[in-house]
Design goal:
The chain has a single domain (18-342), classed as ABC transporter involved in vitamin B12 uptake, BtuC (Orthogonal Bundle). The chain is 78% helix and 0% strand. The protein has 15 helices and no strands. It has helices spanning 2-43, 51-58, 65-98, 110-125, 130-153, 161-183, 187-198, 206-209, 213-225, 227-233, 237-242, 247-269, 275-287, 291-316, 324-342. The radius of gyration is 21 Å and the shape is globular. It starts with a helix and ends in a 6-residue tail after the last helix. The model is unreliable at 1-18 (pLDDT under 50).
Amino acid sequence: MTAASIKIPVRVHGIVARSSRTRGLWLLVLVAVLALLSALSVTIGTRDVAWAEIMAALGGGQETIGQAAVALRMPRTLLAVLSGAALGLAGAIMQGVTRNPLADPGILGVNMGASLAVVIGVAWFGITSAHAYIWTAILGAGGAAVFVYTIGSLGRGGATPLKLALAGAATSVAFASLVIAIVLPRGDIAGGIHAWQIGGVGGATYDRVVPVLPFLGVGFAISLLSARKLNSLALGDDVAAGLGEHVATARAVASLGAILLCGATTAVCGPIGFLGLVVPHLCRTLIGVDHRWLLPFSALGGAALLLGADILGRIVARPGEIDVGIITALIGAPFFIWIVRRQRVREL
């Protein structure tokens, strides 16, 4: 009895230690991949540049065309990293809050709610400032999230994954139709709105990135600090309440973080879909379901995937480029179909 009681803790401790080492290794790999993609992002474009020009541009030089090109790509790279991290993290939060494997800012209509709010603000109220765009998008994202969750909760069984996905899909289609109806008679804004709706990071400048940083910072902080609460919610509402967790408050706070991230990202980049669906699923296969690891991994994975999609869009259509929203849709749509067909669409 004594020998057995000694061996079991040692064996369990060994499993935990190996798991932590594995996660740590994957974390280093992910950081290295993100660093490599960042380097490629400032290198690849319509004009290839040498490392000497890159280093000179990083030091503030813009004497040559190559240095000027690098100077333009640096804010684009920064925006891609921040936006990808925000969407990947928001997707993991939404899947944890709803315990829905199909949850995603695009599928649940959150991105389209932010998009509709911005279009209304531009067309009817003439908003122009960056902060007005951001606040409007955040309010639209929050309203859409509440609306979809309310609709998905109606009837027997409450907010099941399938009902939420159907409610989100229907809401997205309805909001997209409203956007078209609002923009169609407004030729003065139609071109800019259509380009923004595709979703992309092209043309990024530091003047566009800086206003969104406080909102993303608050969203990242709230979301990452919700990891333990999401672990409790994953055990079920009754168990979480028995552990002393205020279930409704935990859901509301975590959802607030995701809404801030989605709204702020949509305001500056436009609606980018499927990233928040793909990344958390890939990260779970690497490091498991512990949100203390899953959330930061989803942020890093989202940054790497969006940056990689942006680089791919520049390569396949040279000397032009394909917006990153199109690339992520091409990647995410088959992944969504695979999840629906191969996995049981139940609660996480």
